[in-house]
């Protein structure tokens, strides 16, 4: 069974602080996606990374795909209350058809 | 362009009953995937439909089934409901849903919150 472990599970920080969320697996993924989910809603895609070592920036969010394509990190600079939510990573596996394995999730709360 | 819609948004059933959930994908999207989300297990893949055919299946019992219609709309059915089936059921649509060389983007609906009493 492919597993994607995220850490930390929960994170509560003050506005303005920086944070990093990790997503780790023993499996090699063709792609890695990060989503944010707010209460009562479905996950919303933030970014897709496909190349080992790839770094993508989205305003205050920086995403990195590990060189071996087994892990990823999400770094948020100067967190804001609007960043509060459940962050999910999802690894894309190509075995015939394409399948996504979701991580265990990191629940972030940013306090004003 | 309208997003993925799911109906109903909330549902309460009792053990032993059956339930049907509906998903309307984004116009033009042919792939529909279903996921179950619970606090304990996270987001788990149920199955994927493409052009009315089930193309991928997760590790769920046969009580969970689905189908897709010619207009790409999809339904998911759970028979003989158990307490553990209480969850948020999410539907996601994409253009092609995973041809071997595709990194197609999935767009999720808001989900159906199912409570089994």
Query: What is the overall pLDDT average of chain B?
Result: 91
Major sheet size, sense and barrel closure of chain B: 7 strands, mixed
Q: How is the biggest beta sheet of chain A arranged?
A: 6 strands, mixed
**Structural class label of chain A:** mainly beta
Q: Cα-atom Rg of chain B, whole angstroms? A: 14 Å
Order of helices and strands of chain A: EEEEEEEEEEE
Shape of chain A: globular
Strand content of chain A: over 45%
Q: Estimate the global geometry of chain B from the Cα principal axes.
A: globular
Radius of gyration of chain A: 14 Å
Number of strands of chain A: 11
Give structural notes:
The complex is a heterodimer of chains A (112) and B (117). Chain A contains no helices and eleven strands. With 112 residues, chain A is mainly β. In chain A, strands 2, 4, 5, 9, 10 and 11 form a six-stranded mixed β-sheet that branches. Chain A is globular, with a radius of gyration of 14 Å. Chain B is mostly beta strands. Chain B has no helices and eleven strands. Chains A and B meet through strand 5, strand 9 and strand 10 of A and strand 5 and strand 10 of B.
């Amino acid at each position: 069974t492919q597993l994607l472990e995220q850490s930390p599970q929960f994170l509560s920080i003050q506005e303005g602080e920086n944070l990093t969320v990790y997503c780790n697996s023993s499996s090699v993924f063709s792609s890695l996606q990060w989503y944010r989910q707010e209460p009562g809603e479905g996950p919303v895609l933030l970014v897709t990374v496909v190349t080992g070592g790839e770094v993508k920036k989205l305003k205050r969010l920086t995403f990195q795909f590990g060189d071996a394509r087994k892990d990823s990190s999400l770094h948020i600079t100067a967190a804001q209350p609007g960043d509060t939510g459940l962050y999910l990573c999802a690894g894309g596996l190509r075995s015939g058809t394409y399948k996504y394995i979701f991580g265990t999730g990191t629940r972030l709360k940013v306090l004003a | 362009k309208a997003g993925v819609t799911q109906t109903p948004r909330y549902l309460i059933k009792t053990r032993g009953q059956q339930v049907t959930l509906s998903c309307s994908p984004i116009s033009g999207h042919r792939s529909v995937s279903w996921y179950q989300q619970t606090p304990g297990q996270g987001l788990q893949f149920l199955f994927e439909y493409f052009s009315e055919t089930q193309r991928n299946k997760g590790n769920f019992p046969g009580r969970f089934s689905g189908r897709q219609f010619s207009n790409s709309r999809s339904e998911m059915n759970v028979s003989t409901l158990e307490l553990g089936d209480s969850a948020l059921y999410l539907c996601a649509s994409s253009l092609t849903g995973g041809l071997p060389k595709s990194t197609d983007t999935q767009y999720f609906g808001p989900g159906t919150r199912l409570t089994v009493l």
